[in-house]
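# nightly structure sweep
# worker-07 picked up a monomer target from the shared queue
# config: single-sequence mode, recycle default, output format = structure tokens
# input follows
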Amino acid sequence: MRSKSARIVCACVLLIAAACDYSPPTGGYPQPVNPPVAEVFPEGLWTASGIPGEILRLEASQLATTGAQEPATRLSTSSANLFRLNSVAFDSHGMMWVASEDDSLLLAFTPESNGGSGFTTPKVVIGSVNRSISGPTGIAFDRDHGLWVASFASGKLVHYSASQLTKSGSPAPSVVITGIRQPTSLALDVSGALWVTDLFANTISRYLPSQLLSSGEKQPAIVLRANGVSIAHPTGIAFDAANNMWISNAADDAVVGFRPPQLAADGAPKPFVTLKPTETSINGPAGLAFDSFGNLWVAGASGVLTRFSLATITASGDAEPDAQIRLSHNALLWSLAFWPKPVGFPLN
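# output follows
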């Protein structure tokens, strides 16, 4: 009989399927523009769970430990169900954006005055027009402060300009790109190119900055395909400070890394490192995020956050995490975001 964690991982993939029914270059990376201290969210690692529908924060001291933890902050809202797979990202002005897959909504939150738990009301709610947002499973801000959304259920990549994100409504996206089957998660590399995972096609696609300027059905400039289980139901995606690309694979319970030269052309490259613990389990890896020390954090569908040290992810061979934090009362974790935004990384 399958374990509880295995059932949750399978549920993660089934829930997303159900949505279908309805070394850095010279000059470095753009640095986050953090607002005055009085206006920002409490520091820490933010995520969201689908069971129950909550936005969660672990503070810095909790991230230095291992074992069961109670989140320092639990937020819920009556404006969205926050069921299924919810994405979290911070803009450069200190607002936290959440994509609610179940509601097909984008919600922006400003910090509560005391940083505590409880109910919260979004400052901005963006809804869909012509299925522009349909089962959103990934969001990422670009260097112009616009927001890209992976609309999984409608097979679209949609973009909202910064000016469209200032008030609630259902604006027509500034750009709509079709031609990808089921876009799942998004990340931008140092050049501003947009990389997209496709959960069921088992591909990673790259769209050049020039392709992102206008709407239409477009073929990606580069498509990476599986080499064995190198890409196996890819969920999360992130770039590190050296512009290496990292992918989490739900079907293989592993995270893989690709060097920049491997990303320069179509193909099925072999990862330079595979993070697949032998002593522990990632339990349905999904969202990825780098902290300010270059450590890689992985969100697990069963409610486990896993940390791989910088030394581990730059080596090869077997890889054991140096910390695992279990959120005992939450599951279906999907994405991760640090606040303040760590410097020295592409805009993910």
